[in-house]
Amino acid sequence: MDLYLPVANLSVNALVIILLGGGVGLLSGMFGVGGGFLTTPLLIVYGIPPTVAAASSASQVTGASVSGVFAHFRRKGVDTKMGGVLVAGGILGSFFGAWLFRLLQQSGQIDTVIAIVYVIMLGSIGGLMAKESIGTIGRARTGRPPKARKRRHHPLVAALPLRTRFYASGLYISPLAPLLLGFFTGILTILLGIGGGFILVPAMIYLLGMATSVVVGTSLFQTLFVTAVATMVHATTTKAVDIVLAALLLLGSVVGAQVGARFATKFRPEYLRLGLAVMVLLVGARILLGLVWRPEEIFSVTLS
Amino acid sequence: MKPGWLALLAPLLMAQAKPVLVPDVSQRNIEIAYSFTGAELLLFGAILYPGGRLPTGEQPTDIVVVVKGPTQSILMREKEKVAGIWVNAARLRYRSAPSFYAIASSKPIDRLVDDRTRAIYELGLDSLQLSPASSAPAPIQDRFQKGLVDLKRRAGLYYEAPRAVEITDGVLYRARVSIPARVPVGRFTAETFLIRDGRVLAAAVRDIDIRKSGFERFVARAADRSSVTYGLVAVALSVFLGWAAGWIARRV
After folding, report:
1. Is the separation of the CB atoms in A61 and A195 below 8 Å?
2. pTM of the predicted structure, to 2 decimals
3. How many whole angstroms separate alpha carbon B230 and alpha carbon B226?
């Protein structure tokens, strides 16, 4: 079933896009991530222009995170104060990201920068996750009790001024720390079309030292608002949001996310984390190969 | 008749000695709707010979049809390996590269006319006048032009179709040119050339308008002109779909 995308200016097979969204949604429901880090590269592989891919997959992440946010709100799993600070940082970050995007686009290095950032991020996060989950699985097998982790924030975070109390997170820290974290994630959202959950969650646990019960909900809360802002920024600056493409992706992913969430209860979380780590590392390795192998196309064309 | 009259008629009489082309295209407008996957144009017409008779004892006439898309100003970049990774390095700007170029002919084009004529009429992928905006050395310009043609050819946007024009009894001709879904909208031109003995005897142009219609036109215009509303609708759509899926899932 061929469908013409009015902004991307090409026709795609609607079923392929819905299935792509469904597959990503399934994984995002299972692992609790937005899935943007998979959508954007897959769309580019399918032949969608990179800018349109990044701009349209941000709205898919919005859709995938909505039901999660509601679910966590019902369980009181969202620290709205912390979330608000993160969102504020994220909005500032997305404006900065838009400026950076234009700058890189003009210099012609946007694709390389996106690829390098992906490789560094996916490689490091995937590696950490794999190490941690293998460790947990090993300990579960041998029956040794896990070492009790000290829940403490990073010394750099403690050094920041203007401390305030975040009750739900059980923290007394400077709002500058989550603001900076949100800012950084906002840049990534604009550049890569990702929600940033898989950066935000470890950072909230290991850097800020937040109570784990509110980490995922608050991260989804930030993702929801920042991807919505990112969609707006793209719609008004790059004008590359293809609403037909976004709708197709959403149709697949919101259904897939629900199925994935049910699926996830059947597996042990450390195995899920290992699965996610393997997937993240594979995507990172594929992008790295794209950088170092001689590309099929030496030349590229942009309208000017 | 006075000699003055004859002098006035002379150009007309001489024009009469050349054949005339009467070209047409199957579609003057191509509308892009939701199911658009490309279009097939039929370019056809007749060759009118002076006196209404096929000339005898002369070389046969050939037809070349060129379909061009609206020109674009483009920036081309070339990747180079720097410190182990492939990054964009050299670049060249072209002021007017056709977004689409298809050439169909009754015989391979290099057998019909010489290089000079091909360059004048832009006949053939190696004879395009792309007007580069910089004075880069000739070898570099050649490399970029080859790269551009290769890139566009692989996307199906540039192609040559030798022997795709059929001529029936030396009078009627027809050619099919397919236009892929990836073409930009705008005014396309279909030029028809009548060639004999390595010379262009007659040429005629027809315009074809390709535009988005209906919903596609509405969406493309909304994205461009009312971008804030468009963005808000995109966000609302994603929030609604995500919420609806969650609502349904809790009840299943």
Report:
1. yes
2. 0.79
3. 6
B2, B6, B7, B12 alpha-carbon torsion, rounded to 10°? 160
Q: Tell me the HSE value of A295 on the side-chain side, using a 13 A CA sphere.
A: 20
Q: How far is A133 from chain B (nearest CA, A)?
A: 29
Q: What is the ipTM, given to two decimal places?
A: 0.82
Is B93 within 8 Å of B131 (Cβ atoms)? no
Domain definitions of chain A by residue range = 2-292
The structure tokens listed for A90 are 């994220």
Q: Is A111 exposed, middle or buried (0-12, 13-18, 19+ CB in 10 A)?
A: buried
Which DSSP string corresponds to A90-118? HHHHHHHHHHHHHHHHHHT-HHHHHHHHH
Measure the CA angle with vertex B177, ends B174 and B183; round to 5°: 155
Interface probe for B, chosen from A39, A251, A298, A302 (most Cβ of B below 10 Å), is: A298
* Cβ neighbours, 10 Å, residue B138: 8
The dihedral through the CA atoms of B139, B142, B148, B149 has a sign that is negative
Q: Answer whether B142 touches A (CB < 8 Å).
A: no
Buried b (16+ CB within 10 A) or exposed e, B216-225: bbebbebbee
What's the pLDDT tens digit per position in B214-233?
Answer: 888 888 888 888 889 998 99
